[in-house]
Amino acid sequence: xxxxxxxxxxxxxxxxxxxxxxxxxxxxxxxxxxxxxxxxxxxxxxxxxxxxxxxxxxxxxxxxxxxxxxxxxxxxxxxxxxxxxxxxxx
Length: 90
What we know:
By secondary structure, this protein is mainly alpha-helical. 48% of the residues lie in helices and 0% in strands.
């Protein structure tokens, strides 16, 4: 921060940089609706509830997306109030 202030001035040091990378969203509105329907349904046989990795694998298996990480599933779940297998949301 000091170096930028000395080399380019105070104004340059205080302005925010634009992000260097932009990521395209993996799930559009229809994909998110299918993901919500999937996680609100019954979990796979032998599982007590949906895990993020199970949801990511199932989305790929159903060909909703080509590939998706469990972190991307977590971020889209965080935007909604749905849970991964709770009986009641209240």
